[in-house]
Amino acid sequence: MPLVSGATNLRKALEDPNGFVSAPGVYDGLSARMALAAGFDALYMTGAGTAASVHGQADLGICTLNDMRANAEMIANLSPSTPLIADADTGYGGPIMVARTTEQYARAGVAGFHIEDQVQTKRCGHLGGKQLVDTSTYITRIRAAVQARQRLDNDIVVIARTDALQSLGYEESVARLRAARDAGADVGFLEGISSREMAAQAVRDLAPWPLLLNMVEHGSTPAISAGEAKALGFRMIIFPFATIGPALTAMREGLETLRRTGLPGLDPSLTPQMLFRVCGLDESVRLDAEAGGGAFEGGVDLQKE
């Protein structure tokens, strides 16, 4: 059977009145593998996580289109039918660059991406002091993405994000999202929702347009579970820190143990083979055998003396 792309699967989920997409944030191949093994049927490539893992830098607009596209392409192609939603920041320039971003993301296998209305020197949505472009510039970005998708005849989903809530207030934010919807965006994304009441109001005010909820724990938005988000009427929820948060904690604790005791103190189950199996070792062994190769004829298990 022909492979169904992640973009097509994401669009089908949005067309289903009862569909709901819950995507944990991933930032590299290992975190993506772990999320897939846990049974999630969609992933979210976090821009903050990409900046941290690729550059060791804060989410301050440091990542380029090439950084983001390369990371997204690697993650998306671990499981091409699984939708990958990716951060695309501001689109990385004017209409020509936004169109290029759309084309590169689509060809990389990304299922959906969000573009925001911050200035080029953007920052994480859960930091203060964000600066915005005017509505006309923002809508030009959205229109450029939609038109590029149409030229490609691709199912990639265009998500319009606004960061206007912090400085311009709720009404202006909703007005920007309505304009983005009218320009052809498939999904809306109100960043920095500060209460459950505001979340419910946004769904009502923009219905029946699908909305995405960004669930950054301990940020601007109160803790809302996937089930609660669905009950409120959201069609998508992303958890940007779902893997990088636990990884940060585990690495800090492991390195402190190593410095203190001289050994990392790993759980006995954390063997090299376990890591490699998470990353597709068994699939590689099977592929080699089916092609008639002999690379693994002696097996991969350590021989016991």
TrEMBL record:
It catalyses: (2S,3R)-3-hydroxybutane-1,2,3-tricarboxylate = pyruvate + succinate. CDD domains: ICL_PEPM (cd00377). PROSITE patterns: ISOCITRATE_LYASE (PS00161). Pfam families: PEP_mutase. It comes from the Eukaryota. One of its GO terms (molecular function) is methylisocitrate lyase activity. InterPro entries: ICL/PEPM (IPR039556), Isocitrate_lyase_ph_CS (IPR018523), Pyrv/PenolPyrv_kinase-like_dom (IPR015813), Pyrv_kinase-like_dom_sf (IPR040442). Belongs to the isocitrate lyase/PEP mutase superfamily. This is Carboxyvinyl-carboxyphosphonate phosphorylmutase. It comes from Penicillium canariense. The lineage of its organism: Eukaryota, Fungi, Dikarya, Ascomycota, Pezizomycotina.
